[in-house]
Write a structure and sequence with these properties.
The chain has about 400 residues and is an alpha+beta fold. It is built from 13 helices and ten strands. About 55% of the residues lie in helices and about 15% in strands. The two termini are about 30 Å apart.
């Protein structure tokens, strides 16, 4: 009886643990950081697909890839563009974008103990010292050229206060761009199961950085940068760009590549985001989960040559026409919406306010309902366990009483 009771207790405890774990998984780390999956329809996505424009599509080693015409946002090549992968250091494009949006280049970044010593052993670092001070601009050059993970930590703390806060900012920015399969948990891209994205989303982030931040392209197209002496280091440090496509002395040099960001971890494989001038058009190429870094470079040049040889001026003109019509339609729709808003006046404002309150109430009600359900289940389990235990005690007392009675009869 005792063994059965213990077995039952273990079963109920395991059920509680499993239920709790399932709920934590269902909440999802992305939910905590503030990003949710959104629709990837043409109008909402910002990157539009044109099919049937090219032939003889090449095979590449990367498991996912996309090439996008930056001007119109139309894809010129795609392979598994929504498939989830680990980004590795191409994460730093988002880190740089947020830093440029929220910090002045002359601001001073002071490196904490955590920023310096929490970096994974053997990963890329700038070897900054605890308490060392660099400008935001200097950090950005080291971030994009040598992929300094300690610099990413310092920038994240400077902009966000903490890494967790900065990760929240990253996910909110990704959501604002319409990313559909992205969750960032750090600023550097070192492996974390809850840190992932897809080729489609990385193209959107890369285009945003290109379109809105001139300094971003100045940095990622720089071959070498000299970081002057600081309060902690007396020597000038020279940082060379790891992007082999823009280095004329590299065997993988590609003349029309104008910048980008490299990435590699064992889990992510080779990842690469680059910009190029192909047939007079600026395009961005994203490679994810290639065999290694060298393979990502080869995949990129393969796709650039494919675009060069297959996408003609006439095709680009067609993209421009489609894009112009789309812009006109969107502007027309916006004008109609504005007119409707003006005519509705206070009525719309009241409806919006009411809907917001209702949504908030529904959301709060949903979470309260879940909490009440969990509480009820917990009480039921505890009560059931208590009833079983009391039954066990009663049966134990009965058995002891019978044994005593039998012993008394035997002595008589």
């Amino acid at each position: 009886m005792k063994n059965r009771f213990i077995k039952n207790i273990r079963t109920y405890a395991a059920a509680v643990v499993i239920a709790a774990c399932a709920m934590l998984v269902s909440v999802n780390v992305c939910k905590v950081y503030g990003i949710e999956r959104v629709s990837s329809s043409e109008k909402e996505s910002g990157i539009y697909t044109v099919t049937g424009t090219t032939e003889n599509v090449p095979e590449i080693l990367g498991e996912s890839a996309i090439v996008v015409d930056i001007k119109t946002g139309y894809t010129l090549y795609e392979k598994n563009i929504y498939e989830k992968h680990y980004p590795a250091s191409i994460t730093k494009i988002m880190t740089a974008l947020l830093t440029l949006e929220h910090a002045d280049l002359n601001e001073i970044v002071t490196f904490s103990h955590a920023a310096v010593f929490s970096v994974e052993a053997g990963s890329s670092v700038a070897y900054v010292d605890e308490g060392e001070q660099l400008t935001v601009e200097q950090c950005l050059y080291g971030l994009m050229l040598i992929s300094g993970n300690d610099l990413a930590n310092g920038l994240a703390e400077h902009v966000g206060g903490t890494m967790n806060n900065f990760a929240t900012m990253m996910n909110e920015r990704a959501k604002s761009l319409g990313c559909v399969n992205t969750c960032f948990s750090n600023a550097h891209g070192l492996h974390d199961e809850n840190h992932y994205t897809c080729a489609y989303d990385m193209a959107k982030i890369a285009i945003e950085a290109y379109d809105t931040q001139d300094k971003f392209m100045d940095i990622c197209s720089t071959l070498t940068y000299e970081c002057p002496p600081t309060n902690k280091q007396k020597e000038t440090r020279v940082w060379g760009n790891k992007n082999r496509l823009i280095n004329p002395y590299e065997d993988l040099y590609y003349e029309d590549c104008i910048g980008g960001k490299t990435g590699y971890t064992n889990e992510a494989g080779g990842t690469l985001v680059t910009y190029a001038n192909i047939n007079g058009r600026k395009v961005v190429c994203v490679i994810m989960k290639s065999t290694n870094s060298a393979a990502a470079f080869v995949d990129t040049t393969t796709l650039y040559e494919y675009i060069r040889n297959n996408v003609t001026d006439d095709m680009f003109n067609q993209l421009d026409e489609k894009y112009s019509k789309l812009v006109e339609e969107e502007n027309s729709n916006q004008s109609e919406e504005q007119n409707t808003t003006v005519s509705e006046g206070v009525k719309n404002e009241n409806v919006t306010s009411s809907n917001t309150e209702n949504n908030d109430e529904e959301s709060d009600g949903l979470w309260i309902g879940w909490k009440l359900l969990i509480l009820m289940l917990t009480i039921l389990i505890i009560y059931y366990a208590y009833v079983r235990y009391m039954r066990y005690l009663r049966m134990k007392r009965r058995r002891e009483r019978r044994l005593r009675e039998r012993g008394q009869q035997h002595r008589r």
